[in-house]
Amino acid sequence: MKANEIVTVLNHFKDSSYQRVFIDGTWGIGKTKYVLDFKNAHSDACYVSLFGKKDIESIIQEIYFQIVNSVPNGKFKKYSRKVREIFNNVNIEFHGLTISVPLIEKLHSTLYKELGKKGTYIIIFDDLERKHHDLDIKEILGLIDSLAKIENIKTVLIAATDQLEEDEETFKNYKEKAIDRTYTIEEYADEAPLKILGEEIWKVIGIIAEEFEFNNLRTFEKTSLFIKEVIEILGEEVFTDKFTRDDVYRMCFATVFFNIEHKGEMKLLDTDKPNSELRNAFYLTDESGVIEYLYNYILKNSLDNVMCKSVFHHIRKWYETGTYTKEIIINLIESINSYKEKPKSFYSSEEEILDIIENTREYIRNLNGTEPLDDIISKLNTALAWCEVLSDDFGISVEEIVKLVDENIPNKIDLTKSSYQNGIDLWDYHIESEEARKVVKSISEALKVEYYNLLVNQIRDCFIQKSYNEYLYLIQLQDSIISIKDNPIRDIVVKSIRDNQFFFPIPSGRITEEHWYWCRRINVLIRDIEEHWGIENYYDDFKSYIYGLEINKQDNILQHRLRHLFEKN
């Protein structure tokens, strides 16, 4: 049932034949909120939190005070005096009072008689799992049972049984004796997130949140507070059609969800194909990998502007550590907002359009290697589209453009990501002219070649430095073998492997598990290259090189390992 149905349950409970009911639900699902809604709407109900309670006496005392306080204003002194007269052997004070259950019974019946009240008085006990460890759970169940035997008194117990820990078994054993009916809250109320976040924010993140199964409303509460903090610090003036409030809502929610619901673990990677841990391990290598995970797996690529990922890192660090540098974040936001997309030049004059083309020519000819590749492509796309409209010659060939952007290409590459993720998607740039399409495709091909050039160089460095634990680059290369169709890339890979002793660290003497794992990966890599690229005798050449080394004649354990590697596989 949903949390808001608690009110209906308690309303029915008043007039039902049940005396003792139990409401179970995980933390943060909204139990207390709706219980208090019921209590505030009914004067004949009292609410007692067991949080930190060490003994039964303190619980009974709190019940007593709530019963006395239920007397209408103006009559409290009168009925307090009558109660004193009836129980003249008890010192009725608000502190240090020890009261027995029979006294509560007599007090309750006396007050109801004097006040002319009829009906049921409901006592609600909340936070069972948060009681002090000195208080035996059997004492609480005994108290509930005793109170429920008093005429016109009913009891409600509320807990998150998944948090009872060492008391769980005891509770199960005694629950049937002390409880008449159990209700389980499995979902928060439909309207709860909307009330917590407000319509504007829920409209944005509700679509994302509903993709996941979780019932902790505190995640929404913490998201709401964090959003308010971020906007208060950054200021309203930072938001534009390029850096939107909606993207801030999304980044804040993904960050809070990742930390609260998934405890900072990349749990969604487990839903991939078998053996995905190594394939997806690059997500774990650095901060950018975590942001890519949040963007792809939690936000499902839903940012209005993918450039906001540069701010995402700071949002995440801000929430997790409380540390942020406002100046850096503002500068990033300003760069996003100042990024010039294709100008809306339909109403511009021909002279203005020609100026745009000429400015792009000068920009391309004077690149210094620091300009973002995205900016370069965007400017070229605009200029070449207008060249086509005006039948104007841009004056720089495709081959020349690729040479001019050569130093900018490495800045686009992130070796912690696959070749596909490092590629250029033409759809992202809304390519409008055939010439622009040729340019972007050529840059994309150059980017791909450079990616594999840097990747094999990174593998070579790991091999030379004996950093065998850094095998993720090796896995990335192996996972790409089937998809690599371009001969220039194949030539780079094959030559680099041959020129560097096949990247094979001879497993002689005492070795580590990482060392042996690297040897196995190289063995599979070279076998796959021969199979999928059709390079005849490549694998045999590799084995011949290894077996021909002088060290093989002297090291018996090495010979054993090589037989295990080559023959058993």
Automatic annotation (TrEMBL):
Pfam families per record: KAP_NTPase
Domain annotation KAP NTPase: ranges: 3-185
Coiled-coil ranges from the UniProt annotation: 150-177
Keyword Coiled coil part of the UniProt annotation: yes
Keyword presence, Transport: no
InterPro entries: KAP_P-loop, P-loop_NTPase
Gene3D superfamilies assigned: P-loop containing nucleotide triphosphate hydrolases (3.40.50.300)
Sorted UniProt keywords: Coiled coil
Name this protein carries in UniProt: P-loop NTPase fold protein
Native species: Metabacillus rhizosphaerae
Source lineage: Bacteria, Bacillati, Bacillota, Bacilli, Bacillales
